[in-house]
Amino acid sequence: MELSERKNEIIGLGEKLLAKLLDKGVDSVAILIDSHISRQVRFAVNQIVATKTWDETNIGVMIDKDKKVVVFEIGLASLSDIDEISNQLMMYIKNVPPREDYAPLPEPSMKYPELKDNWDENILKNPEMHVNLAFDVIDSGKKAGAKRMAGTLLSKAMFLCLITSNGSKLTQESTQVYLDVRAFMDKESTGHASIAGTKLSQIDASKVAEEAASTAKLSQKYQTIDPGRYDTFFTYDATAALLNLVGGATSAFAVETGQSFFIKKLHTNVAPEIVNLKDDPLFSGAYNSRAFDDEGSPTRANELIVSGELKTYLHNRFTAKKFGSELTGNAGWISPRAWNLVLEPGDQSINEMIENIRNGLVIHNVTYIRFQNYMAGDFSGIIRDGVFLVKNGEIAAAVRGLRLSDNTLRMLSNIIAIGKERRQIFHWWLEQNIPVLTAPIIVKDVNYTKAVK
Helix %, strand %, coil % for the chain, to 5? Predict the structure, then answer.
């Protein structure tokens, strides 16, 4: 069954479950249905190794009774036994304590924002376009000198529906696609680049492939340098990885549970004046476009950092009550979250930024980031797929044997330049799974330790 043909059936099943739970005597119910068709093309060693299409529908249920809250997720097949599901939920809610921070579901809004450029029919109707993009990566990477190209192209066409007992019946359709590419000259000489959007036409496969291939080629001639502090140019992907940490830390749930380095930092300067960061699910072509959050509040652009000052945490109904704040349109049922991070661009080209580095590094990818202390912001991460020494504004050699080991707050405060060209980034390596529209950045005095294998 086509995605468009199943909408009424899915909504009908959700409404039946909602009615059944209300008959059981709960105070309120929310049903969140996410139905999507995904297409994936994987390629390795210059060949397409797998193409997959899968069809999933997940149904989330949240019930409130006597200030108790239970959240439950099931697949579409399980929804056929509505009586059994409703009985299980009532059993669960008997065994949980009331929430001290309880707040009711927000009332539906009279108006919700309109999403722009968030649908591409080609993702459903033209699967061959996915394969063609993968071939473009392979051909472009080989022409740019890479010996082997590998990566993933993943797209989704999604139908989202929220039904609540206080009258919300909200739906939206959207598409998203990302391309994640690695190029190889040998096992150690690798390059990486990625790009994301809502339409296949936004995916510049040749450009991404050429970037990854050129990085891999440059990585062949390498040297070791002493651990220490270096001014560092972070590319699009590396910056997106770091901004994911910032986005995750703005969740009021993370603040409340001691998993944020922004505790007691609200309305203080956490970065220099050149840094302006917002969460915006509404910009044209936003990878994670959302018109409403999981509680039925309208979404909006939220200014997170303005001229270096941390302006807000992101809230759902429970954290808003606990913090005495307003809803921000970022609700997840357990934890509020950022939808799409957007970094305001600067005024320098990539070449100009690197030319201004006297003795520093270029980092293309930061992966497997782990915190040693969430509240302090101490973390470390593997740097890979292109690490280069810069001397007097020029790349001198590739570097191996270092690990990024620093503090998020210190790095934020040490941003000294932001590029003027932005790219939307999303891939599975991002720790918080938050898409980012970003330019490259330069951070002064970044700390590196010796990598331990």
Answer: 25, 40, 35
Render the burial of 246-280: b for 16+ CB within 10 Å, e for the rest. Answer: bbbbbbbbbbbeebbbbbebbeeebbeeebbbbbb
Q: Do 299 and 113 touch, CB atoms closer than 8 A?
A: yes
Q: Where do the CATH 3.30.2290.10 domains begin and end in the chain?
A: 3-212
Q: Is 259 helix (H, G, I), strand (E, B) or coil?
A: coil
pLDDT digits (tens, 9 = 90+) for 202-222: 999 999 999 999 999 999 999
Side-chain half-sphere exposure of 219, counting CA atoms within 13 A: 30
Confidence of residue 347 (pLDDT cuts 50, 70, 90): very high
pTM for the complete prediction?
0.95
pLDDT tens, position by position, 279-304: 999 999 999 999 999 999 999 999 99
β-pair partners for 446: 230
Phi, psi dihedral angles at 231 (to 5 degrees): -60, 135
Kindly indicate whether the domain formed by 3-212 is annotated with CATH number 3.30.2290.10.
Answer: yes
Short-list 141, 150, 130, 145, CA closest to 47: 150
Calculate the dihedral angle through the C-alpha atoms of 258, 260, 265, 268, rounding to the nearest 10 degrees.
180
**Rounded distance, CA 396 to CA 226, Å?**
15
Joined tokens for residue 224: 């070791």
What does pLDDT average to over the chain? 95
What element of type H or E holds 92? helix 82-94
pLDDT tens per residue across span 350-396: 999 999 999 999 999 999 999 999 999 999 999 999 999 999 999 99
CB atoms within 10 A of CB 392: 9
Nearest to 188 by CA among 21, 399, 9: 399
Q: Strand pairing partners for 194?
A: 180
Q: CB under 8 Å to 320, separation ≥6 — which residues? A: 103, 252, 326, 327, 328
Please write the tens of the pLDDT for every residue from 395-423.
999 999 999 999 999 999 999 999 999 99
Are the C-beta atoms of 154 and 224 separated by less than 8 Å?
no
